[in-house]
Write a structure and sequence with these properties.
The structure is a homodimer.
Chain A: E1 10-21, E2 24-32, E3 35-37, E4 40-42, H1 49-61, E5 67-74, E6 85-93, E7 110-114, H2 125-140, H3 156-167, H4 173-182, E8 186-193, E9 201-206
Parallel strand pairs in A: 1-6
Antiparallel strand pairs in A: 1-2, 1-4, 2-3, 2-7, 5-6, 8-9
The structure holds a DNA duplex.
DNA sequence: TGTAATAGTGTTAAAATGACACTAATATAA
DNA sequence: TTATATTAGTGTCATTTTAACACTATTACA
């Protein structure tokens, strides 16, 4: 059986790459032919969807192995006016040391943008980012997913800040520490973070890096 | 631009139609060319994914308007040995009056099967059903999705039984009633269900039929 | 009229949550 | 060297939520 080409939508993957940079949730955008959008593109023949998403993220942004999760598939017929496109959307979480801005992004083909206050994006990429943000915030409440945004070693204050930024509300320091420590998903390293002009903090690390556990 | 056909995966939607029949969670299967599987098939040119899923469910099973939710997109390269197929999976919830078996299904092209103890299904449809079951059970705990499995009027005992069947564990009657009534998602109709040989029960109805609300 | 069957109803102990304020340790500047 | 600024770190208690638990009410039918 060989259907005519017109009856087959083009299948793409698009990735929402999130990171906490500075004190904000940011998204890494890639310049596409018609404007700024999410890293992504056509799925290869015989290429797994996850593999395609990871490949496109790597090719277009240079980002190495990161946490990746399928989000939703967007297939409204006219989401691309030029031709039928169906996008399997993913989100990625990129660990960045707090105070750092992460690895420099290559050239002017990519740029970081605050998740609040994105520039106009191509197609329905703005909507995809919005769905991804909601999902990320929801998962904070019942999983250890925030650890995927942390560097290898981090302080409890930094972890709390990540939660606060994504949830958009302040959290109680003592309650936060109590909860996260009883979860036993992180462990103290014994090392201290030495900042400037203040008491040094214990450094922690994830007990199961790369894994996201459901809690409650 | 016209890419060669081989580079475009065939896109399908597949639907897991759930219902509570008798005392079990069941799935409505459709006979496909190579064996029993989920209702589904190719997405039409310029057809929305949700529309395609609903159309295929209606065409292959005769089921009318039901609750439908996108589940996950399955795209492992060799999930179909014959050709590259990517399936956007949905699940559907079909309300059936308890004690009834629902509308008769047409001919021998469809059959109900218990979600435990499905026959061997084509491709990865068994896996799709497994993912859908997990999602359904999870959503019971934080949404009013179970109402989509209930007929227009139902008793609290029937609603509790639906929860117990899907969760696979007994629930406390008084705690269940307390919780569901304080949610204010259902209301008493004033009518009574008259069974045989026992006290009649109040009939309730959903306050917002068709809508699923998040709770907690 | 008695029996079988399901409907319907509150209380209490335990656990989880959420609010709340002070001391400790360091770097730096005076 | 000492004072100050800055963040780290720590516990209690009231409130709310959850979970366990058993009896009476109403009907159909024998």
């Amino acid at each position: 059986m060989n259907l005519p080409n017109a009856s087959l939508p083009t299948l793409t993957t698009d990735v929402v790459p999130f990171a906490i940079r500075g004190e904000r949730l940011e998204v890494l955008l890639a310049r596409q032919t018609t404007g700024w959008g999410l890293p992504g593109g056509p799925v290869g023949v015989d290429e797994d969807l996850d593999v395609a998403a990871r490949r496109q993220l790597a090719e277009q942004t240079g980002l190495p192995e990161v946490y990746l999760e399928q989000l939703y598939t967007f297939g409204r017929p006219n989401r691309d006016p030029a031709r039928r496109m169906v996008a399997v959307a993913y989100f990625a979480l990129i660990p960045i040391a707090s105070g750092s801005v992460g690895a420099p992004v290559a050239g002017d083909a990519v740029r970081w943008a605050a998740a609040d206050g994105l520039p106009p994006l191509i197609l329905d990429h703005g909507e995809i980012v919005a769905v991804a943000r909601r999902r990320l915030a929801a998962k904070l409440l019942y999983s250890t997913i925030a650890l995927q945004l942390m560097p290898e070693r981090f302080t409890l204050s930094e972890l709390q800040a990540v939660h606060e930024i994504i949830l958009g509300e302040p959290l109680d320091k003592r309650n936060f520490r109590k909860r996260v420590l009883t979860l036993e998903c992180i462990e103290a390293t014994g090392e201290l973070a030495r900042h400037s002009g203040r008491r040094p903090a214990q450094l922690y690390r994830a007990q199961h890096p790369g894994q996201v556990e459901l809690i409650r």
